[in-house]
Amino acid sequence: MIRILTLALVLAASPAHAIPICKGGHLAERRATCLFDADTGHQRGRKWRLLDIDAPEMHGECPAETRIARQARDRLKALLDDGYRIHRSGKTDRAGRALVRIRLRDGRDAGGVLMSEGLAQPWPNRGNVWCGR
Q: How many helices (H) and strands (E) does the chain have?
């Protein structure tokens, strides 16, 4: 019994496989796990959005937003590649995405890390800080 519990704990703490960038269609049907950008992705086909943060858009309003969006997405990918857990809030946004928090393997909140590194801002907000407005 102790061996089984030890193995279960080791497996639960193991790093996740590298999470890919979302590509192609039918992500829900394919039960895809992937990232769109730094605050939106899919986990086994279910679309999610991070709670309380806003990350720059991949097709931004200005070149700076698009550049920072790639940096933010790639940073989130690197953070998640070390292992993570998604915590669903039980709420959805107006687009039907599950609102979630992501806890990294080391216990940090993924959205908090992105904000602390200047790659995301609090939500709700006004304007577009990445384009200077």
A: 3, 7
Cα within 13 Å of Cα(8), Cβ side = 5
For residue 68, what is the domain's CATH number?
2.40.50
* Residues in contact with 93: Cβ distance below 8 Å, sequence separation at least 6, in sequence order: 49, 99
The predicted-structure confidence for 69-98, as pLDDT tens digits, reads as follows 999 999 999 999 999 999 999 999 999 999
pLDDT tier at 15 (50, 70, 90 boundaries)? very low
If phi > 0 it is left, if psi is from -120 to 50 it is alpha, else beta; for residue 116 that is: alpha
Phi and psi at 119, nearest 5°, equal: -100, 0
**Maximum Cα interatomic distance, the chain, rounded to a whole number of Å:** 59
Full domain range(s) for residue 57: 2-131
Number of domains in the chain: 1
pTM > 0.90: yes or no? no
Instruction: Tell me the DSSP string of 75-117.
Output: HHHHHHHT-EEEEEEEEE-TT-PEEEEEEETTS-BHHHHHHHT
